[in-house]
Design a protein that fits this description.
Layout lengths: L43 H16 L2 H5 L12 E4 L2 E4 L16 H10 L14 H4 L4 H13 L21 H10 L14 H11 L5 H4 L22 E3 L2 E3 L15 H10 L9 H9 L6 H11 L17 H8 L5 H9 L1 H4 L25 H9 L1 E2 L11 E2 L8 H11 L12 H10 L13
Antiparallel strand pairs: 1-2, 3-4, 5-6
Bound molecules: heme C (HEC) (3 copies).
Length: 452
């Protein structure tokens, strides 16, 4: 079973920028963007292009990896763990000496969409250029205009990677790129029909790079699919100790039971009747998706709803009141049930259904019913905070239970949760809990007579 693996991925902090309506690409002339001194005030078409670029930078979450906690916007220095060492994101402010101020449009485009640095070396795929390859040239022009003219130049040399020689040699990355990176797209004509679905696909596969976290990785750490030509696309991945869930049509553990409106509500407010965003997704919502336009979120939802189930044989869950009745009557004396009543029921209720948009439901939840229990163990150990969003300013939290519950208690309570109220997911073992406790560096378990 895939438990916590630290991949070439990142998930750090996400930017909050006012959402500007996305400009129609066709409204922008194809003329090359002229580099101007960063102080030159922008007017007319140029100002519009910059706004379009700002919006795309938010949708693409460039800040997530290029802005360090407490650091200047886009000045880099975020450490991204990979199996071979830590990669630091570079300074992408328009500073001439230490940033990308000396990059022509073509050089910027080559880095963002093809993973090739100005000096010709290949970038680590921690920079999601395999997704950005799907961005249209006109959108990359807008991004370039925004970075060159609206981002404050910061003098801060980029940090070298911590990867030891010989793994630090970049030439093998070239072969990775040739094997796994798609070609950068051409501008193309706007679709004659199905514009909403096309827009949704464009954002999901491209700028918003949902697959970076939500698609499983192969042996070369490449995403197993970059489009819906294969059911493995968006069928779930593991990132920073959380399962970035299946977003396909599966009713048990995907988005099969979510309406498009519920998907929009989740991306906009970080919560809905089915779930609350936690872990890396809380940051995605807070810094990126909540700032996307309603039209774009609706397009994303419409597109996600076209994805067939990853498991063609899966079946829907059906509600079952047995566990609720036993908990209320006090007849289930198992460690799992008792641990639930003592620690969880105050918020998630004996019915497991919680309170909508306050304490997420555990009954019939696609999160709870994922085969891989990593996220559940992680959130019980460390707790969680819903994102703070403009649409839902109160962010409720859940405390961590690392010092209160043993590995055995957590395994039992999660096994109870995963088999009650109609849920149907495999049992969780104390060994799995111990592994996650170590991987996410949670406090050691409390000492009890039975485990000392
Ligand atoms: C998931 C993390 C992540 C995201 C999101 C991300 N980047 Fe990067 N980016 C990186 C890393 C890591 C590198 C350095 C890779 C290396 O050293 O090989 C990088 C490198 C770059 C470079 C090359 C700089 C140079 O010195 O040549 C540019 C330009 C760049 N990113 C721009 C962007 C833009 C624009 C966005 C948003 C559209 C973005 N990045 C989003 C992680 C990210
Ligand atoms: C940086 C990694 C990352 C990126 C990028 C990302 N996600 Fe997530 N996502 C996660 C993680 C981790 C979870 C599991 C936590 C949770 O359920 O809130 C998650 C959960 C979700 C859920 C909740 C599913 C459920 O059943 O509860 C939805 C919906 C979702 N993501 C949609 C998206 C969409 C759409 C995109 C692209 C616009 C996206 N995500 C991009 C990491 C990511
Ligand atoms: C103080 C109230 C509270 C208590 C007590 C509590 N939770 Fe939570 N729980 C929450 C909140 C709030 C969230 C959403 C957190 C977030 O989004 O980061 C949550 C989220 C979850 C999730 C993720 C569900 C989803 O769809 O997003 C699981 C699983 C979970 N709790 C299980 C438990 C278990 C098991 C216990 C007992 C060991 C427990 N909780 C105790 C409030 C609570």
């Amino acid at each position: 079973m895939a438990v916590v693996s630290s991949t070439l991925l990142a998930a750090a902090a996400w930017t909050v920028h006012a959402a500007a309506e996305d400009q129609q690409a066709s409204a922008q002339p194809d003329a090359p963007v002229k580099a101007q001194p960063p102080v030159a005030p922008a007017t007319g078409a140029q100002a519009q292009l910059i706004e379009q670029g700002r919006y795309l930078a938010t949708a693409a979450d460039c800040v997530a990896c290029h802005t360090a906690t407490g650091g200047k916007p886009y000045a880099g220095g975020v450490g991204i763990a990979s199996p071979i060492g830590t990669i630091y994101s570079p300074n992408i402010t328009p500073d001439k000496a230490t940033g990308i101020g000396g990059y022509s449009f073509d050089e910027f485009d080559r880095a963002v969409r093809r993973g090739i640095a100005k000096d010709g070396s290949t970038l680590y795929p921690a920079m999601p250029y395999v997704s950005y390859a799907k961005m249209k040239p006109s959108d990359v022009k807008a991004l370039y205009a925004y970075f060159m003219h609206d981002v404050e130049p910061v003098e801060q040399p980029s940090k070298a990677t911590d990867i030891p020689w010989p793994l630090s040699m970049r030439w093998p990355l070239r072969f990775w790129r040739m094997a796994f990176a798609p070609n950068a797209v051409k501008e193309g004509a706007p679709p004659a029909t199905g514009a909403t679905l096309a827009r949704g696909r464009y954002l999901v596969e491209g700028a918003a790079h949902c697959g970076t976290c939500h698609t499983p990785r192969g042996l070369g750490l490449q995403e197993k699919a970059l489009t819906d030509h294969d059911r493995v696309f968006l069928s779930g991945g593991v990132v920073d100790g959380y399962v970035a869930k299946n977003l396909r049509g599966d009713r048990k553990d995907g988005l099969g039971e979510w309406t498009p409106q519920q998907i929009v509500a989740f991306l906009k407010s970080g919560r809905n009747a089915h779930a609350a965003a936690f872990g890396g997704m809380a940051e995605v919502v807070q810094r990126s998706t909540q700032n996307m336009s309603d039209a774009d979120l609706e397009a994303i939802a419409a597109y996600l709803k076209t994805l067939s189930p990853a498991d063609p044989d899966e079946s829907a869950l059906a509600a079952d009141a047995t566990a609720t009745e036993k908990l209320r009557a006090g007849t289930d004396r198992s460690n799992g049930a008792l641990t639930f009543v003592d620690n969880c029921a105050a918020c998630h209720r004996t019915s497991g259904s919680g309170y909508e948009s306050t304490f997420p439901t555990l009954a019939l939840s696609s999160v709870v019913n994922s085969d891989d229990p990593t996220s559940l163990i992680h959130i019980v150990l460390k707790g969680g905070q819903m994102p703070w969003t403009k649409a839902a300013p109160t962010h409720y939290g859940m405390p961590g239970f690392a010092t209160r519950l043993t590995d055995r208690d957590i395994a039992d309570v999660l096994t109870f949760v995963r088999s009650s109220w109609g849920n149907r997911a495999p049992a969780v073992s104390a060994d799995e809990v111990a592994k996650v406790r170590k991987a996410v560096r949670a406090a050691p378990q409390p000492v009890r007579p039975e485990n000392s």
